[in-house]
Amino acid sequence: MNQPKGCEVTMRLRQPLEGIRVIELAQYISGPYCGLLLAGLGADVIKVEQPGVGDISRRVGPFPEDIPHPERSGLFHYLNRGKRGITLNITTNTGREVLLKLLESADVCISDLMPRQAAELKLDYDTLRKVNPRLIVASITPFGQTGPYKDYKAYAINASAIGGISLIVGQPGREPLTPPFALGHFQTGIITANAIMLALFAQKKLGLGQHIDVSEAESWAIFHTGNAVSAFVYSGRKRTRTGHRTPAPYPYTILPCKDGYISMIALRGSEWKRFLEIVGDGKVPEWYSSDPRFQDRLKAGLEYADLLDELLSPWLMSHTKGEIFARCREQHVPFLPVRNMKEVVECEHLNKRQFFDEIDLKIGRYKCPGPPVRFTRVSWQISQPAPSLSQHNYDIYCRELGYSSEEMVRMHRANII
């Protein structure tokens, strides 16, 4: 059937989660990043913060000009764009009653309350589903809702350690390392957002919500240690730290060049041969072709990697990473430069794809990562900045929940909102 003129354009701009209300009872990164992903798809995400204090990320930064300010944290503004914000002390009886009233009409609640804390506040799933049987509750905690560790507090460094990833990050013979800043928190947010969307499908079909149990330690294990776990389970191999290279057919490594570093991997022999021909000005260097130690690439990677690094070093150190990247692209060799953040922000490819958005921190506009995905018939987009602390209290408490201005004043004086 032919669509009316302009209909297809309208369909392409529609956001799939329009009409879905999400209450974000979480702070820092995991829960807020989950909320951001849902907000970008059109959900009405209402962020609940502690009165007078706010989300932890307001105090983390980075801050413009390195001047801390709760309304100028780059991390907070990035994670909480497109949301409405209220303040509410859920540890008080009145605050809990207000939250339950808010949840009566909600579709989703993102919570990072520990199991014991949720039970003590009577905000556990068994209680919430009686208030709203259609409610989907996504609980994000370090170790999940069950098991002997369920009530233990932990941070990213702890979750990466117990999830097995820290043991395989770092230099051989040195202490294990934690992966870069908050990697597991962001990945947990992705896992939770995906789970929520699946639960929304089930909600539409069954008319009921459900409880989603997300463990940050397990998200580390899923994303990073799956290969290492499989190697141990099936063959008893214990993977450990290998520094700047991976035990594999050479090369699978990062090596220095004239102005930085190059990430080098050539799983196919043809790719490796083409790179050697770049190094040898059209032919494979004799130092490689005449040495029988290098003919078995796996053996070379395991036993002679240091020697090969040394032999490649003169050529690498005489070329910039831009020059190497250009030559490798011409010959279809998958070697790429290791970029710093300035180079990432200025990347021609990312800017051509309009990867970056901007956030307004009142004293200037700053770039931040934009849409994580692109669709042909729907859109992921954020049009509103992150809320200031308590910005939408009046709209939500008075206009939507029906509280009077006098009740709002009394709750404010009692430090409930």
Shape: elongated
Percent of residues in beta strands: 5-15%
Q: Sheet bearing the most strands, described?
A: 6 strands, parallel
Q: Span between N and C termini?
A: 53 Å
Based on CA atoms alone, the radius of gyration comes out at 26 Å
**What is the average of the pLDDT values?**
92
Can you walk through the features of this model?
41% of the residues lie in helices and 13% in strands. It has helices at 7-13, 30-40, 74-79, 93-103, 115-120, 125-131, 156-162, 183-206, 216-224, 226-235, 269-279, 286-289, 297-303, 305-317, 321-330, 341-345, 348-352, 393-400, 405-413; strands at 21-25, 44-49, 84-87, 108-111, 136-141, 211-215, 252-257, 260-265, 336-337, 356-360, 365-369. It has a 6-stranded parallel sheet with strand order 3-2-1-4-5-6, with helices on both faces. Strands 7-8-9 form a 3-stranded antiparallel sheet. It is elongated. 30% of the residues are buried.
Concise structural overview:
This protein has 417 residues and is an alpha/beta fold. The protein has helices at residues 7-13, 30-40, 74-79, 93-103, 115-120, 125-131, 156-162, 183-206, 216-224, 226-235, 269-279, 286-289, 297-303, 305-317, 321-330, 341-345, 348-352, 393-400, 405-413; strands at 21-25, 44-49, 84-87, 108-111, 136-141, 211-215, 252-257, 260-265, 336-337, 356-360, 365-369.
